[in-house]
Write a structure and sequence with these properties.
Its cofactor is Zn(2+). The structure is a single chain. The chain is an alpha+beta fold and about 210 residues long. The protein has one domain: 3-Layer(aba) Sandwich (L-fuculose-1-phosphate Aldolase), CATH 3.40.225. The chain is built from 7 helices and 8 strands. Strands 4-3-2-1-5-8-7-6 form an 8-stranded mixed β-sheet, with helices on both faces. Helix 2 packs parallel to helix 5 and helix 3 crosses helix 6.
Amino acid sequence: MSEVQYRQDLVRYARSLFERGYSSGGAGNISLKLPDGHILATPTNSSFGDLDADELSKVTMTGELVSGHKASKEVLMHLAMYRQRPACGGIVHLHSPWLTALSCLPDLDYENALPAITPYYVMRVGKLPVVPYIRPGSPEIAVHVERLSKEHNSILLANHGPIISGKNIREAVFNAEELEETAKLYFVLKPYGMKTLTNENIDELNTLFNMK
């Protein structure tokens, strides 16, 4: 696939997320890994809804700008996740409503912010660890993301939102959608209580689908 096609894919998936309310205004950022090892990412102050494929930021794995507009200040946490997950080909950072609401709750379990409500959450995400609140754009966020992403493809930033990866941009978006729907289910069910999967159920899924 050519770089032009990768650029078009990133724009298409970003617009889809914007149109369905996963990102509003200039919130969030999205990236993918190119075959040459460089990273294609959303520029600073850009919107998922009106990205220009020719203006996307192309950066090295250490953050130097190769072409396009200046990258989002949050590209550092994308690069941290790519470094720890060599098979990762796409990353989405959202301010989606249900996951952002979850990130603001008191007494979050920082080891796993969501229970195993459905098998799909277990298969696509597994566990959702939490990074304590740090101001957006701080390099310190990338330090926490790098520490956690070796074992987790999704991380929740307290009072901020999620960062989610996949083997390509398509899978990263699918993982993000599943995670947002799980957070929505959590809030819908919370007043009534919920029956979650047992440890045996989770072990079966991990074994059958070779999940990490």
